[in-house]
Design a protein that fits this description.
The chain is of the alpha+beta class. Helices cover about 20% and strands about 30% of the residues. It has one domain. Strands 1, 2, 3, 4, 5, 6, 7 and 8 form an eight-stranded mixed beta sheet that branches.
Length: about 150
């Protein structure tokens, strides 16, 4: 019920040894100029009470990233205002690209990944976040993720 990207779409493995780059399980900095946090796009599974989630990377401004980093280990961090960001994970199960969709990143209590709220547009991913998906759609996503280019891909 969860699929996650390992790094933002613009990450290059050559960055791993650079002094001005960092990739952890939760945060990423590229060339000291681009800042990212990992969060969850949560989608209700209709009629089940379950939630499907995409583990995605969102770019933040330097100021927002600095604030989020300062609050990272502080109790009560979930009271911070949401941060504006751009989705920087390409989810190829959608016919329309997901890169650079507008988001709001909501910090949650320590130990929980941030919640990524998509701007309420007509993009299929945003519609699914608002309206939910069926178990059949979850299976379709699983098939597409586990077997790229197969029949499950849209």
């Amino acid at each position: 019920m969860n699929y996650a990207a390992e790094a933002p779409a613009i990450w290059n493995p050559d960055f791993a040894d650079a002094d001005d780059c960092l990739l952890s399980s939760d945060q990423c900095v590229i060339l000291g100029q681009h800042y990212f946090v990992k969060g969850l796009i949560e989608i209700p599974v209709v009629g089940t009470g379950d939630v499907f989630s995409w583990g995605v990377w969102v770019s933040l401004s330097r100021a927002s990233f600095s604030e989020a980093a300062d609050l990272w280990d502080r109790p009560g961090r979930e009271t911070a205002q949401p941060y504006f960001g751009w989705l920087t994970t390409d989810l190829p199960v959608y016919a329309t690209p997901t890169l650079y969709l507008k988001t709001h990143v909501h910090t949650r209590p320590i130990g929980e990944r941030p919640f990524v709220e998509l701007e309420p547009t007509d993009h299929p991913l945003a519609v699914e976040q608002r309206e939910g998906i069926t178990l059949d759609r979850v299976r379709e996503i699983a098939a597409a993720v586990l077997h790229p280019g197969g029949d499950g891909q849209r």
